[in-house]
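Worked Example 4.2. Consider the chain below.
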Amino acid sequence: MKKIFLIVIALMTGMTTILAQGIRVHYTGKNPTIADFVTAYLSQEDDEEMINGILDDWTHRQKGQALSNGASFTVDVKNGFVRYDKRYTGNTYSYTELCYWNCKDQKHKLLAVNRGCIEQGKPVTAQFTGLKFYTYDNQTKRMTQTYNTDLGAGIHTQKVVTYALPQSGKDIMATIHAAQNEVQILMKWNGAKFDQEQLGRPAGNVQVSAPTGSFGENIKYKDDDYIRVYTAEQFLNALGSNRNVLVAKNTEINLTPILNDQSNFRTRFKMWMPDVSSGVAGGRETVVSEEVFDGRQLTLVNMKQLVIEGEQNSRIVVEPRYAFCLNFVDCNNCTVRNLTIGHTEGGYCQGGVIGMKRGWRNMVADCDLYGCGTYGLDLEGTNSFSIYSSNIHDCTYGIMQLRDCEAVSCTHCDFFNNREYTLIESRGCVGVVFEDCRFYANWGDATLFSFDREFTLLGCAVYHPTENLGTMNLCEQPGAQNLFHENPIDKNIQGREIGPDGHYVNTKGE
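Applying the procedure from the previous section yields the following structure tokens:
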């Protein structure tokens, strides 16, 4: 017994010595790389149970050998980032991320190690999960552990917290998970420590009173159902799944300046990308500044149950003529409501007011969509989309373009003052229905309907020359009677209270 006790004391003494002296980082060349930091970190003796599996796979990778089942590495030496994933069964896996920063004193570097565990698709707290830091001394070539709180990175809560280290950029994203809600904290690296910024909270608990120091249990929220926003920056930070974002009364948000600033898009949740048409790998919800011909557009990817709503006289505008004002990719159950949305000037060739690619059960309600580059709505591969009590007007290509969609419903909407090509074009779509809609004051020389499959009109008023109605042979007209008039600007056309705040647009352009 005494001999065993002495062995334990010796092991503890050895570990204390390692922690006190730090971990030696061996490298060749002028400076260590992220690969050198990974090798040094995995060589330590603490957390042996967690490290051994990663060390084996890391060694196999260095030798060009096969990894263990379910294991994979992402190694980005240029940006100083490594991620190790170990998938077990289904949606159960663990991951370890490492990255480093140069300190502004030019004498040290900071290494972050982030470990997480997902069970059946949900994050859990385990023995080895969490975020830790090591400070590397350029002179001694050793790194020692540094407490999170000393770096401004402490989050004090009993809830599950996950982190995302930056593969590019400098900031860490932390997410506090509760049964119904999530809170996101952006940790901004300033060269010496992190400054924390609260990014909002979903429906039911919003408008944070941000504390100083660490975020966590001391966060207080106003009892409200919305995140009320007044600026483009607040709007951008509020976006996310399961959130209700309210554009404040008498507020116009011009998204273009903030979309043109790349510094706002340097995390895994906010990205600066040239093209998002194919989505984002891994199904991660992402706010993207996406490149278009004459600028950038806001594209929301993999969002679920996001509501963007105007309080009263609320507007969202963009400047580039070729950009969508709001673009959704792979989003489900999202709603845009009670907003006026459009471009500062019209354009051609590409970019409408609202674009949606894939996704299902999305809705636009009580909105005024105007002056777009091409169409008011541009839908591709969507399922169960609806637009209700809304105006689409003054668009330069047409009213809407539909491709490979199912179950598109347009109810109690007015479509007017649009030009100049086919006004409603649909290819490969089934279940397109217009009910209680009006079509008037559009370019009479333009074809109104161009469908390659059946569509339905119910109780609609169509003011358009008969010879330019288009594919009426594919139009089904059951139930409520439709009215057809040759004159697009018939004097009997009156405005009706649809659109934002029940407001109607003057139909005669006066």
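The CA atoms of residues 440 and 463 lie 5 Å apart. Residues 1-20, 201-224, 502-510 have pLDDT under 50 and may be disordered. Compare this with Example 4.1 before moving on.
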